[in-house]
């Protein structure tokens, strides 16, 4: 399950950033390394909410810095909550 979630998260990153998957490192900071401004960050999190049919609270978003942080959060969220759909 974790690998499937990771692939889906990376797919969303690729779509939002318009980059190839091999250009996105798991330890990359979304703010400094990937240079996502606040608008791109919100676009990313909305796309993740759509992909996984889960809500990501704003207070959680500000604490997520790396691609791996986001993947870990989504894995935990997917495992803990039933789908809204």
Rg (CA only): 12 Å
Tell me the name of the CATH homologous superfamily: ACP-like
Please name the CATH architecture: Orthogonal Bundle
Major sheet summary line: none
- Series of H and E elements: HHHH
Give the DSSP E fraction (strand runs of 2 or more residues).
under 5%
Write down the CATH topology: Non-ribosomal Peptide Synthetase Peptidyl Carrier Protein, Chain A
Distance separating the two termini: 19 Å
InterPro entries: ACP (IPR003231), ACP-like_sf (IPR036736), PP-bd_ACP (IPR009081)
GO molecular function: acyl binding; acyl carrier activity
Keywords: Phosphopantetheine, Phosphoprotein
Protein name: Carrier domain-containing protein
Description of the molecule:
This is Carrier domain-containing protein. It holds the Pfam family PP-binding. With 85 residues, this protein is mainly α. The chain has one domain: Non-ribosomal Peptide Synthetase Peptidyl Carrier Protein, Chain A, CATH 1.10.1200. The protein has 4 helices and no strands.
């Amino acid at each position: 399950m974790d690998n499937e979630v990771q692939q889906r998260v990376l797919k969303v990153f690729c779509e939002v950033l318009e980059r190839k998957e091999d250009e996105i490192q798991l330890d990359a900071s979304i703010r400094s390394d990937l240079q996502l401004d606040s608008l791109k960050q919100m676009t990313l999190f909305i796309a993740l909410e759509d992909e996984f049919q889960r809500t990501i609270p704003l207070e959680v978003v500000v604490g997520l810095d790396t691609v791996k942080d986001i993947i870990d959060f989504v894995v935990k969220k997917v495992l803990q909550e039933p789908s809204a759909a």
